Amino acid sequence: MTQTLSGKVALVTGGSRGTGAAIVRRLARDGADIVFSYGLSKEQAERVVQELEALGRRAIAIKADQAVGSEVESLVKAAYGAFNRLDILVNSAGVFVTGVAGDPAADPVAFDRQLAINVKGVVSAVRTAIPLLSDGGRIVSIGAAGASHRAAFPGIADYVASKAAVAAYTRGWARDLGARRITVNVVQPGPTNTGMAPQEGPVAEMLRGMSALGRYGEPEEVAAAVAFLVGPEAGYITGATLTVDGGLSL
């Protein structure tokens, strides 16, 4: 595989598992040195680091709570300090909290934390990264197909609203950073086979039936979209939404 990202440094939030780990592995295979954050398991994060080092990449895992602005800021600054440069920021960390409107059993703390991670954490990461990013750098955030298309089932309004906010920020940031040739884009996956939304989950059969391709996506397919957007051939793409949902939103 051609190492199109050789010499680049990428920071991926939430990079120890699921889609985030697939992105980390793909960018490393493409030649980037990697810093990624994790929230829970140090052991799992260290296993990912070992995988990347086996590819010949430099890799560092940093524990950070994406809901805490000061921790996100420290993460970005530490990522830059680790290799004295930062070329790529991928906002992959996120949580998925459901509940229909007006449900008396809904947990307001969980919904507030979802907003803190999915929106405020992304904003903190981008704002901190802007003065550190190389000119011509790349920012990609992971959204959700439901943010700009139909909500697939009841109870996901808060989640897709948080991802819609990220898509709106993406378009605005693309304008703000265009003069520096920094591109800002969002990848919006549909149902993807991760621990957050397994392909054998309670709504999986319904979602497969709604998809044009009749299946769930794999994390590596989302990672491939991210790899394209952070690579040299996507330098004229900014403020864009790339939907990777198997035709769910058609």
Keywords:
single chain, 250 residues, alpha/beta, Rossmann fold, 41% helix
Structural notes for this entry:
The protein is α/β, with parallel strands linked by helices. The chain has one domain (9-244): Rossmann fold (3-Layer(aba) Sandwich), CATH 3.40.50. It contains seven helices and seven strands. The protein has helices spanning 18-29, 42-54, 69-83, 108-129, 157-177, 204-210, 219-230, and strands at residues 9-13, 33-38, 59-63, 88-91, 138-142, 183-189, 241-244. It has a seven-stranded parallel sheet, sandwiched between helices. Helix 1 links the parallel strand 1 and strand 2. The chain is globular, with a radius of gyration of 17 Å. It starts with 8 loop residues before the first strand and ends in a 6-residue tail after the last strand. The mean pLDDT is 94.
How are the SSEs ordered, and which strands pair?
Layout: E1 9-13, H1 18-29, E2 33-38, H2 42-54, E3 59-63, H3 69-83, E4 88-91, H4 108-129, E5 138-142, H5 157-177, E6 183-189, H6 204-210, H7 219-230, E7 241-244
Short note summarizing the structure:
With 250 residues, this protein is α/β, with parallel strands linked by helices. The chain contains 7 helices and 7 strands, in the order βαβαβαβαβαβααβ.
Instruction: Flag low-confidence runs.
Output: none
CATH class group: Alpha Beta
* Largest sheet strand order: 3-2-1-4-5-6-7
CATH superfamily: NAD(P)-binding Rossmann-like Domain
* Beta strand count: 7
Termini distance?
33 Å
